[in-house]
Amino acid sequence: MSSNVKETVIQFGEGGFLRGFVDYFFHKLQEKGLYDGKIVVVQPIDKGMCQLLADQNCEYNLFLRGIEDGQVVNEHTHVTSISRALNPYAQYEEYIALAESPDLRVLVSNTTEAGIEYLGTEALTDMPPKSYPAKLCQFLYRRYQAGLKGLILLPCELIDDNGDNLKKCVLQYADLWKLEDGFKKWLETENDFCSTLVDRIVTGYPREEAEELTRQIGYEDKLIDTAEIFHLWVIGGNHEDELPFRKAGYNIVWTDDVHPYKKRKVRILNGGHTSMVLGAYLYGLETVGECMKDEKVSAFLKKCIFEEIIPTIGDTEDNRKFGAAVMERFSNPFIRHQLLSIALNSVSKFEVRVLPTILEYKEKFGSYPSALTFSMAALIAFYHTDHANDGAEIMEFMKNASVEDILKREDYWHADLSGMIPMVREYYDLIQNKGMSEAYSHILRG
């Protein structure tokens, strides 16, 4: 690292997602002259890719591909926002010294959903402690002792209220290690643990296309990253003055409340996926791309999103725009998304992503939504085959149980679904007796 490089961001995590999302945004801010500062990447577990990054001078190529406003987009960026990569298991002193840098201002993390956890077994003297929150508590304590100001923390882990949960774990370690009240007060008042929602499909290293992309860039890059063009980063708080992402033209939302954005994503994007894939697989399709090219399946998805999900959560221009973006994202020719991989654990996915809309629609409009209710019948028909992939007990029960018995399993659905039985039974019989094609036609006519 040359002495004139300002390192303003520490990033726990070196995987494809952060490199295809956060590191790209910081690269673009620098490129547009809106930000002066580089990222130091820290490997959160003892095995990782920091050495690989270091071998490439922390530079890599990112390809963003997809459909935007009806046009195929293919954007190539040579990303240079990372100054260095540290493995705290081998370079502990270099890593912890960062805590004493007055330039440091932002912390970003993606340590997987399991990363934000309190183990309660580590010591303040560990070099480094095992869990991410323990590492962070130790790091911030060193910063506090140096008399420096706190950080803007932007966790990207896919759990609800990730900022609040991370803060809670850090405070638990402060208690475990009997750290002074002054530090806890500094944690609370000088640091902003922002809860965030991230949304971009990052497909990572493109094994099948690596040769072709290597030819395009003219040299070997072992860290080529690929992602869809769509992006959304919702951040609880407002630090646009220091991090002018919106000014740079990116789809970053600063807000007091991340929850409505999370609800929209789960209901429209994830709910759209879950309501479509099982019927589409029974219909004979294998990928999301094939679904979008098929007249009946794409019309069915459109009905789910625009006639049933959006009217339930709020028929606003923002929600409609998000729905239209989802249709484009599912049509992305660069992503081959297998229906069977999305179908994994569909019972719990349906309960979280689709069922709340069905029940709220009934409450709001007085009847069950036909397309989403049909997707419950398709789920039951799918689980009656040998293609389901779920917990052993769930698969055993679902394969042999009647529609009535399945809908009565309140431990699966956390709701009383007896009112849905006649409609689901009718749709299930239609699928079994007339086949999926005729069943789709029936729903689309209605």
**Sheet bearing the most strands, described?**
6 strands, parallel
Give the termini separation.
65 Å
- CATH topology title of the largest domain: Rossmann fold
Spatial arrangement of strands, main beta sheet: 5-2-1-6-7-8
CATH architecture of the largest domain: 3-Layer(aba) Sandwich
Number of helices: 21
* Beta-strand percent range: 5-15%
Structural class per helix/strand content? alpha/beta
Tally of domains:
2
Helix proportion range: 40-55%
Say which CATH homologous superfamily of the largest domain is assigned.
Answer: NAD(P)-binding Rossmann-like Domain
Outline: globular
Give the rounded overall mean pLDDT. 96
Weakly predicted, low-confidence segments: none
**Total strand segments:** 12
Q: Tell me the radius of gyration.
A: 24 Å
CATH class of the largest domain: Alpha Beta
Which short descriptors sum up this protein?
N-(1-d-carboxylethyl)-l-norvaline Dehydrogenase, domain 2; 2 domains; globular
Descriptive notes:
With 446 residues, the protein is of the alpha/beta class. The chain contains 21 helices and twelve strands. Helix 5 (132-145) links the parallel strand 6 (106-109) and strand 7. The protein is globular and about 70 Å long.
What would you say about this model in short?
The chain is of the alpha/beta class and 446 residues long. 48% of the residues lie in helices and 14% in strands.
